[in-house]
Automatic annotation (TrEMBL):
Places the protein is found: Cytoplasm
Organism: Yoonia litorea
Protein's UniProt name: Corrinoid adenosyltransferase
InterPro entries: CblAdoTrfase-like, CblAdoTrfase-like_sf, PduO-typ
Enzyme Commission number, as recorded: 2.5.1.17
Segments crossing the lipid bilayer: none
A GO biological-process term: cobalamin biosynthetic process
Keyword annotations: ATP-binding, Cobalamin biosynthesis, Cytoplasm, Nucleotide-binding, Transferase
């Protein structure tokens, strides 16, 4: 359990921060930018949840928890080491990816196949879910870039890849199962 008795520590005033293993890196390091962007995704999900109800809200709540798991995974280098107390380090798992895939498959059955690209919008929830999708894609790009320099849990990359697809399908569900999607009309304003 995490206990935060004091919110500010002043230890980052010099422009560095601690990773999950205790090592310190610059706040602008790629690893910090990567898990910081995952945190940004989580904040956008919080906004989307202001408009969500029922199963979709419950699924978004699970995603928010997963995103904290993902941040914990990404802030901890040393893939093969346990923490100092000997506990296993929290890592993303294939079961989290599998759950997203099953939810995407269920949503796909509820919408008609696309015949055009979709513009972000429609309902307020759909617009927020599109924002979640685009920030997730940025987090994925950063994670893939980080993986070219350091060892990254492959499930982390797979999760982000599926998550952006999840947000896309969820946006269609939020637009009355795709019937209220805003379709792109190529060259409409020429």
């Amino acid at each position: 359990m995490v206990v935060l008795n004091k919110i500010y520590t002043k230890t980052g005033d010099g422009g560095d921060t601690a990773l999950g293993n205790g090592s310190r890196v610059a706040k602008h390091s790629l690893r910090v930018s990567t898990y910081g962007t995952v945190d940004e995704v989580n904040a956008t999900v919080g906004l989307a949840r202001l408009h969500a109800e029922g199963d979709l809200n419950d699924q978004l709540a699970m995603i928010q928890n997963d995103l904290f798991d993902l941040g914990a995974d990404l802030c901890r280098p040393d893939m093969d080491k346990d923490d100092e107390a000997g506990y296993p380090v929290l890592r993303m798992s294939g079961t989290q990816v599998d759950r997203l895939e099953a939810e995407i498959d269920a949503m796909t059955k509820m919408v008609e196949p696309l015949k055009s690209f979709i513009l972000p919008g429609g309902s307020a929830l759909a617009a927020h879910l599109h924002l979640c999708r685009t920030v997730t894609r940025r987090a994925e790009r950063l994670t893939v870039e980080l993986a070219t320099m350091e060892t990254i849990n492959p499930a982390a990359v797979r999760y982000l890849n599926r998550l952006s697809d999840w947000f896309f399908q969820a946006s269609r569900i939020a637009n009355e199962n795709g019937t209220k999607d805003v379709l792109w009309v190529p060259g409409a304003n020429r």
